[in-house]
């Protein structure tokens, strides 16, 4: 029998989107799947829906007594999972391909033959934006060195449960970039991440609910500070890359010190773009 794969979905008050996400899991051709949905204090009917779905053996529902945040929800699912492999799905996203999990399992066994050491797998994604659908996270691999400059993986990986646990799971103290932070720790401990280049995941940015892009500037700045601290000795180029990632959010206004670092490291386009945010701030 093929190894069991546990899929976690954290959710809160997005029942219509959650149903779409769950259906995309049930359409998978790989059948040895454990679906765990952790509700983070919903009051929109999600809990009733999950309990009914659990009765019909469609998923395992975990209902948190109150809202502790998505990080805690993900960790709760991981710690209660029974699969050999784990991957995730955000409740407002969905799997595009029916063979996403099958491909992950097959590629894992193909790539780990012999003495090959990898942290996990990921996949290029489609992002549905108000301006149209774009391709994202298309790099062939992601190493610890690359991850020290940007998250070129995205928000989901496929890896053995032990890789999540030994790396410390998601850090609830991170107000943003929790996935990036964990991928850094996993790659530092276990090696590279490999892209299966299947475009089997859709990130949906067209709905009315909040995503990280709408988090406050303070939260993005705190995440930037904490990821600096966790990385240890950060080079000027790495610092510039992390700043560029933070400034990519419309709500993050550049500081003079940010612009100096960008210019010194040759990121003139990023510096000019950031300066325009000061001249013509978003309303």
From TrEMBL:
Keywords for this entry?
A: Transferase
Identify the CDD domains for this entry.
Glyco_tranf_GTA_type (cd00761)
Pfam families for this protein: Glycos_transf_2 (PF00535)
Q: Which GO terms describe its molecular function?
A: transferase activity
Report the SUPFAM superfamilies cross-referenced here: Nucleotide-diphospho-sugar transferases
Respond yes or no to whether keyword Lyase is given for this record: no
Tell me where in this chain the Glycosyltransferase 2-like domain is found: 6-108
Cross-referenced InterPro entries = Glyco_trans_2-like (IPR001173), Glycosyltransf_2 (IPR050834), Nucleotide-diphossugar_trans (IPR029044)
Instruction: Please state what the protein is called.
Output: Glycosyl transferase family 2
What is the originating organism of this protein?
Pseudogulbenkiania subflava DSM 22618
Taxonomy of origin reads: Bacteria, Pseudomonadati, Pseudomonadota, Betaproteobacteria, Neisseriales
């Amino acid at each position: 029998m093929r190894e069991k794969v546990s899929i976690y979905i954290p959710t809160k008050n997005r029942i219509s989107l959650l149903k779409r996400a769950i259906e995309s899991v049930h359409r998978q051709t790989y059948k040895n799947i454990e679906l765990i949905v952790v509700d983070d204090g919903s009051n929109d009917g999600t809990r009733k829906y999950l309990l009914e779905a659990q009765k019909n053996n469609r998923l395992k529902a975990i209902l948190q007594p109150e809202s502790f945040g998505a990080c805690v929800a993900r960790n709760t699912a991981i710690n209660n999972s029974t699969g050999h492999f784990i991957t995730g799905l955000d409740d407002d996203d969905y799997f595009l391909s029916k063979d996403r999990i099958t491909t992950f399992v097959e590629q894992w066994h193909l790539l780990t033959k012999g003495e090959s050491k990898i942290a996990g797998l990921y996949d290029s994604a489609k992002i549905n934006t108000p301006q149209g659908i774009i391709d994202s996270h298309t790099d062939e691999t992601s190493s610890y060195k690359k991850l020290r400059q940007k998250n070129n993986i995205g928000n989901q990986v496929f890896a053995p449960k032990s890789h999540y646990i030994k790396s410390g799971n998601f850090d609830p103290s991170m107000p943003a970039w929790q996935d990036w932070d964990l991928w850094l720790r996993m790659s530092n401990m276990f090696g590279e991440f490999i892209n299966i280049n299947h475009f089997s995941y859709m990130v949906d940015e067209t709905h009315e609910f909040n995503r990280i892009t709408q988090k406050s500037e303070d939260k993005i700045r705190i995440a930037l500070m904490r990821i600096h601290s966790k990385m240890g000795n950060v080079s000027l180029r790495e610092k510039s890359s992390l700043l560029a990632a933070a400034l990519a959010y419309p709500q993050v206004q550049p500081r003079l010190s940010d612009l100096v670092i960008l210019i010194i490291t040759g990121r003139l386009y990023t510096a000019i773009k950031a300066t325009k945010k000061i001249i013509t701030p978003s309303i």
